[in-house]
Amino acid sequence: MKTCIVIPNWNGADIIAECLSSLQEQTYTDEIIVVDNASTDNSIELINKKFPAVTIIKNDKNLGFTGGVNVGIEHAIKQGASYVALFNNDATADKKWLHELVGFLDKQPGAGIATCKFIDSNTKLIDNTGEGYSVWGLPFPRGRGESDSNQYDDKIWIFGASGGASLYRVSMLKQIGLFDNDFFAYYEDVDLSFRAQLAGWKVGYVPSAVAYHQIGATSSKIKGFTTYQTLKNLPLLVLKNVPHRYLFRVGWRYLLAHFSFFVSAVKRGNGWQALKGDSKGSYLLFTGLKKRRKIQKSKKVSDDYIWGILTHDLPPNAGKLRALRAGWWRMIGKRHE
After folding, report:
1. CA–CA separation, 302 and 200 (whole Å)
2. In the chain, what is the straight-line distance between the N-terminal and C-terminal CA atoms, in Å?
3. How many CB atoms lie within 10 A of CB 145?
4. How far apart are CA 159 and CA 163, in angstroms?
5. For the segment 114-146, what is each residue's pLDDT rounded down to a tens digit?
6. How much is the pLDDT for 220?
7. Which of 56, 69, 196, 239 fits a 20 to 30 Å CA distance from 190?
């Protein structure tokens, strides 16, 4: 079965050569596709010169992660691909990374996504081992910041996969749709994983597949980008995907978290980006209602199943929210979920 790797690129001339070198050394791949989001550096020239076998698709403007990878996925589907891997331009892969992911999906017909152990290339700590989703409406990378001490070496089913280094089954994508362009960047991978779970597909974590990530190499180039995208996208993620039965229970918690994020952004000097993210996010909630109806109407699993695969606590990295919650518990003298 044909497998393609799609790499979105925006002004990544300083990092993409190492990425492509590692992908060309894979023991399994059919086509490597770089989708360039209107770079203004010499990315295209560098790829053409050093990696002539790589397919390059040029966008006229920056379509973000979602728009970029969707263009690449559509190309791969037209070429007859059965699987499409996504890979960040600031990442590198072990030689058997793709081989291990393909082998997993080959053996698990009910799995729509397979993800890897992603290591921070700078600190050698874990970047993520897939994505979790909290009943507070907050996604989080499993294991981020932890030393890799074999605690994530079991092959298991998880909630979601990082779009930075994961493999997707094309038949699943044809059923549930590609990445939602309204996200542009950040949490679009969690949204797709959530939609996959609702449609009855599973997500597998394959620890024998390993990749390395230079965290934030692209997003750090734009001031306040993460703040804007976070406050814009998280409400849409909740609205579209959380089943009716649990929407209020997740929603009120998320509102508290959202307010905390906004205040923190203002204190960091990103108030303007936070306000813009809030404004755009409010608009997307109205447009997202139609998407929600379609997603919830077509779901194949029970609400209880979804509730059971969520994390019933704050994310491990939500330190400020944990402190606020602890203060509330002390004040009322009673612990709540």
Report:
1. 9
2. 45
3. 13
4. 13
5. 999 999 999 999 999 999 999 999 999 999 999
6. 54
7. 56
SS3 76: helix
Q: Residue 58 is encoded by which pair of tokens?
A: 């040029």
- Residues paired with 165 in a beta bridge: 87
Would the pTM of this model clear 0.85, i.e. be above it?
Answer: yes
The token pair that represents 184 in the structure block: 């542009």
Phi/psi at 264 (5° precision) = -65, -40
Q: What is the model's pLDDT at position 221?
A: 59
Query: How does pLDDT run across 279-300, given as a tens digit for each residue?
Result: 999 999 999 999 999 999 999 9
Give the number of other CB atoms < 10 A from CB of residue 302: 11
> Which residues in the chain belong to E strands, given as ranges?
3-9, 31-37, 55-59, 83-87, 91-93, 111-120, 126-128, 131-133, 139-141, 156-158, 165-169, 202-213
What values do phi and psi take at 71, rounded to 5?
-60, -45
Strand partners, 131: 141, 160
> Looking at residue 217, what is its pLDDT?
54
The token pair at 255 is 């509102």
Q: What is the pLDDT of residue 330?
A: 82
Give me the residues of the chain with pLDDT under 50, please. 337
Helix (H, G, I), strand (E, B) or coil at 159: coil
